[in-house]
Amino acid sequence: MFGFLTRSRSITKISLTPPAALPERSGLALVLIVKNEARHIAEWARFHADAGVAHIHVYDNGSTDGTVQAIRDAVGDLCSVIPWDQKLRDARRGLEIHNQVLAYAHATRNFGGRYRWMSFIDVDEFLVPKQARSLPEALAHLEACRNISLPWHMFGRSGHQTPPEGGVVQNYTLRNPDPMSDAKGLRNFKMIVDPCAVTALKVHEIETGGGVTCNDRGQAFTQKTRCQPGFYSADHIQLNHYYTRSDAELRAKIARGPNLTTPDADHLRRVMRKVDAIEAGQVPDRAAQDFLRRILPAERQT
Questions:
Q1: Total-model pTM
Q2: Nearest-CA neighbor of 108 among 98, 95, 97, 120?
Q3: At 49, which helix (H) or strand (E)?
Q4: Cα–Cα distance, 56 to 87 (Å, whole number)
Q5: Mind listing the pLDDT tens digit for each residue in 105-123?
């Protein structure tokens, strides 16, 4: 039920037949592909559990540091884990198939029929309700939408050279001031979609028919015009991207390499260019902390 759409060196877009909607489908599911994130995955999972997600489908890309046990300990049966340690290529042309996109397509086809909403994010990305007490509540006014694009809010190192005590949300509070910046690598989106309308996927672009995507106010744009400044909204849901965490963790991230095979020097250059852009003219942002203060007792806010 999948089809591959290619670029010259890799397959980064997969087309598919949408799954059938089950009569009782409801809620928001997250899809996560992860490798060796034991330090942070429990906080990430608990945050989204507190925000009301229905389930987390975890694709484990060969973790060896206890990542899988950490998320199971954190949220129990709210998550399910699928082994996903592979590098696949098209046999005729030798094109590498983007493993992350393949996981997203697998999740959509096999699990999407259970849910009203599905989102595909990484462990350094947090979906933050801005006014509501949960993500389903924040999505309630968007029932007419099938496709919602959320711009990255890019957080840097916040002065931390080594991993600080406490969680990401409490320690990283400085971000680039413009989510719609033209600086290379800063403006991008993750999406919340109706999985039963998905016809094609890339990491940052999901097609649901008609070429339409909405901001979190429900205003409709095309995939191209969502890049215009007028698209921006984080009134209801803000997507925090903690791109670097501490400097030490940034260096480890660079050493792990990208999702597609890339020369080391090229990968290092791209990452550091993005970090410099993120940390230019940073502003404080405590939206994630504010959400936890609204919903959690004081003893769980640290």
A1: 0.92
A2: 120
A3: helix 41-50
A4: 23
A5: 999 999 999 999 999 999 9
